[in-house]
């Protein structure tokens, strides 16, 4: 009897201590979860919460037998590990440090492989919601890491859990979770629609060209800016998204990161990285847990999983459907913290409205125009728009142009809180900016006010050989963003070329043709005497240089693909102008596009007699 009381007493003390540690860690977690996902100065909060969860994890390991005797469930351990994974992911989103994303993946994969949520109380709705949240978070991490095989596995299990929940918890609604399943399925259908042999992230093997590397190394500008911060946001009705990550911001997020040459997440498993964190063996069909000191919470372990030779990723603030005031507040905060001699990239993808009241127009492959307004209205506005476009191209915009044109960053029912005017950007031009506007009203930003900034502006409408793509362009991601992040895939989508039917060698040859062209244009830019300082001061940054090169390609492709008479609205623009030697119709650029079109047997879709 005395021995039983002693065991009960030991279990009781362990349980009370464990619960106290859980409550303490959860309170700290709630504080950091509500911190803004931008700005500096929050690191000490994360250190505190990490230490709290390290203490909790270590305690449950060292006292596992007493805790199990007191009624500890496996799903409770899984929930702690899930919280730690969530912490790492949140820290990645705040800092863009790859090691945090890696750690989040390792934690989530361990939860899945050890089946922490399997066998949980089938009648506990709260536990089921914890399991569903785990799957949704693991899906997001796997998506960003391009672990497509893992995503497919998780989708199958996630769907099964949702279906099981609907049958077991009839009193609860799982419509939102069903929508989450539909979101990730739709996202992956578009993300994997076109063959890709090269990563979206910057890979030195593919994106640093040996022939032009010496010219880049010798390049000298009066002023050189470092790229360290970016703001990414998009809003379109019914745009493709998963959780709070839209397809367009997902592509730009990856584009602005380094690709690890080791690609750890494709080669290593939890067991090879954490030998003391074993997958539970099976006994009678159920997982058995073994308590061993794993050191899993040590945040320094991620150093073994990433390429130490890579520079840090630019810090990115990914904003999901912010109000305009929120966007401007983030811009102000980052501008204030921007280090000297640095440039900030701002990426905005949204629908717009011009001062003349025009709406988005879509052209079919034959050049026929469809508009929600009548032909009479369109005709009466054409002359006004042409005059205004001429003023913009000459930099002669009136002050009213800055506030009569705008982008929609949210539902139109909310009115002014979701309207971003070109003039709203002017105060931030006191700091160097690299601005990408992907909108059907992007050219409203052409007018120069304030300090000169680098501007890449999308076409006013997308161009596709397949007319069905025209009407669903927003629902499959922005064409301009696709060209900037995956140029060959975007090219194939535009000409309706099914990459699954292309021989692997032929596809790789097309990639090499594009890489050779980029290398040639890189040499021209680095040796040009007419390169504007706005571009020259960012040429040494590999991410921004890659953006410029892909813009040159996109501009030329769309110029020659556009039906005659529709070139201006179908082609992107840049401010200030790049050298004429790399203009859309220059021989060195035109010949590269022609060569690529011939390789893929789609030259008949182009109008190579078009002129700029």
Automatic annotation (TrEMBL):
| Region ranges (Disordered) | 354-394
Polar residues bias (residue ranges): 381-394
Q: Which Pfam families match?
A: SCAI
Under Gene Ontology molecular function, one entry of this record is: transcription corepressor activity
Gene Ontology biological process terms from the UniProt entry: DNA-templated transcription
**Membrane spanning segments where?**
none
Q: What is this protein called?
A: Protein SCAI
